Amino acid sequence: MGFSAKWRDWVALILSASSSRVSLNGIEGERIDHRRGLRQGDPLSPYLFILAMDPLHRLLKIATDEGHLSELADRSARFRCSLDADDAAIFIKPSRQDVDSLILILNGFGGATSLQVNLQKSSVLPISCDAYLGMPLTVSRLRKVHLQYLIDRIKARLASWKKKLLSAGGRRELVLSVLSSMPIYVMTALKIPKQIIQEIDKARRKFLWDGGDEFHGGKCKVNWQRVCRPIKYGGLGVSNLTKMGRALHLRWLWYEWTFPDKPWIGMPTPCDEQDAELFAASTTVTIGDSRKALFWESPWVSSSPLKTMAPNLYRHARRKKRTVANALQDNKWINDIRHNLTSMLVTEFFKPEEDGRVVDGWRGEAAVGSGGDGAAGEATVPEAEVKVEELGVDAAGEESRRRGEVRVAIAMD
């Protein structure tokens, strides 16, 4: 790995100097020298783990390049091995050659590092497994049955509370801190069906206004839409799950800009077209080398992207995914729309030319920044949720198409 002998001696000294004692009835026993290994909670542990497992990634890559392992079918997949603590998930083609090659690689890696693989405790799972890290996995459209467990967990939590002993304010706090936070993990990675959101809202509404088993609409003091408004707008501050989901999805779009080297870049995300339009309406793009900003879809000319400023021209363009640098090189964007021009298209054609930055305003490196007063990276998901409320984006996201001029800070930390 290229580390000097002195650095290796330092690490060996740290490992050999650790010790522990057994406490019996408050009396500590003799010192036990470990000689090797790390103590629990040692911050050095993850670094050494990464150094030890990096050769395994390299061995798998070499085996793939030499044809011993079949290439992964998905072109966007960058890593064959996924590691979590002492568990490893390795993706291979279900063929005899790949399995035999993998066993040889693991045995060789274990002999060199003493990290032996227990094949008796290992298992083979089909790629279309039901769940991973608590998330339902399906190749078809996500349905209510896939997330029924989430509703069951919320109902189980409600059943354990002494509802009649809680005040209205206490029930509100539980709705805010517990019931509204339980679906966040799933909503960050998935686009939850409306039926699931309606079931969760039904449970939250029932507990908030009544707290008992018998509930009807007459017990609601105000309608649910007003309950879900921020306090400064006259609501109770209860999260609107639909808008909170959009705020969580904006995080993916933000990370695509700020961390382009993340392993999942290029793979599908839970963001839909309305999320992308809301992101475009909520950020400004500072043009640098123009290799990241999209010519038609990024708001780099003004507060709105070019596809909003010139919708007919956008639909007429042959290449809609050009970057700014690629589109401006030799005026390729003009060649994309040169065919079958009409008077309406010609009128829209001159709109981008009115801004001088189209011609000569790109230098340095590309960057994306939040609009408004916040600096990039300072806003949080709750703040983004409030901004979604301010934009007036409904469940269908229609308002994001009409209010592109609003500047909103949506950078996620």
From TrEMBL:
One of its GO terms (molecular function) is RNA-directed DNA polymerase activity. Keywords: Nucleotidyltransferase, RNA-directed DNA polymerase, Transferase. Residues 10-135 form the Reverse transcriptase domain. InterPro entries: DNA/RNA_pol_sf, RT_dom. This is Reverse transcriptase. It comes from Oryza sativa subsp. japonica. The gene is OSJNBa0006L06.15.
